[in-house]
Amino acid sequence: LLWSLLSLLSNLLIGVRGQRLVTQEPSVLNVNKGETAILDCKKPQDDSYNIYWYKQVPGGVPQFVLYFNRALSSPAYGTGFSSSHFTSRAQSNTHYQLVINSVEAEDSAVYYCKNCITVVFGQGTKLIVTDGSLAAPSLTLLPPSSEQLQADKAALVCLAQVSVGFAEVSWTYNGRPMADGVSTGAAKQQEDKSFALSSFLSVKPSDWDSDGVFSCKVSLGSKQSEATIKKSDCGV
Known about the structure:
3 helices, Immunoglobulin-like, glycoprotein, immunity, five-stranded antiparallel beta sheet, 236 residues, six-stranded mixed beta sheet, 2 domains, mainly beta
């Protein structure tokens, strides 16, 4: 619920009559650890000198990053954010940028901009920081319970522990990609700053009984982990 707060606000307010909308580019930005990330925010017209930036990690609440005013010598920062890592600049009267220096894995998040005079947020830019030293996802693949099989409502559960909250989950059955019956929840940040996520695949009991091979793959940048399971693996 918290994760979708800003996106819900954007979706609900996007059609508010008379509001001047802001747009953000790109929608997804992949940057290597240690590099500089530049996120763009554009306004339809020069209606103010101000822009606000917010950060939201998967499963977390939105955090105020900074307020930028072209008339001020430096931005005003939210708690935990500083000029050594974050800054903002104006490319023109309608084009603003958030600059993140020497990005770290912890900078992976969705960043939103907002004009001063409107309640409408931009659609957000998802920043994904890739790092060759990041650990590969850790997976646990659970079989359907006997109760589910008896009720003809079986599901496999893939539990993943990942370093960044934007991992991609995919399922296959006997090597064939599965899209129907897949439900993947938003990642939730843990106390150790890692993220936990779960994905469910609804399966036909007949497919499970046929001892077909089900696979859950979790991709995190160049790092991938895959877990497989079939009925005979469970000793039944």
